[in-house]
């Protein structure tokens, strides 16, 4: 198995394990999307490990404390080059050995941006099934 596949499989196994106690109402999609997070006036660049219309998880991020509010900006791949902007809040930091990772819940995502995320992730799932 290639390194990339091995990492992806480990991440998917990690996500499946987290889903057993998941409080989310929206499905997560393993998806690497570059995102900007602003917290306390500082700008951070992260890549999502998964994405849903409810938020994102950053598996390799140095986490902010739970409860930290952040501004989130990202663009979905494809022809629609309009940035998605919303407020978010750090809602979990995994208790694992390397100390990395954080989950950010989207707080005020517009209905149109929520629809864009649902449509995009739906297209990803459909193309994976082909």
What keywords describe this structure?
130 residues; alpha+beta; eight-stranded antiparallel β-sheet; globular
Q: What is shown here, in short?
A:
The chain has 130 residues and is of the alpha+beta class. The protein has helices at 3-19, 111-129, and strands at 29-30, 34-39, 42-47, 50-52, 55-58, 69-74, 84-92, 102-106.
Mind summarizing the main beta sheet? 8 strands, antiparallel
Oligomer state equals single chain
User: How many alpha or pi helices?
Assistant: 2
* Shape label: globular
Q: What's the gyration radius in Å? A: 14 Å
Mean pLDDT across every amino acid position? 83
* Topology as a string of helices (H) and strands (E): HEEEEEEEEH
Strand order of the largest sheet: 1-4-5-8-7-6-2-3
Write up this protein:
The protein is α+β, with helices and mostly antiparallel strands and 130 residues long. The chain has helices at residues 3-19, 111-129, and strands at residues 29-30, 34-39, 42-47, 50-52, 55-58, 69-74, 84-92, 102-106. The two termini are 22 Å apart.
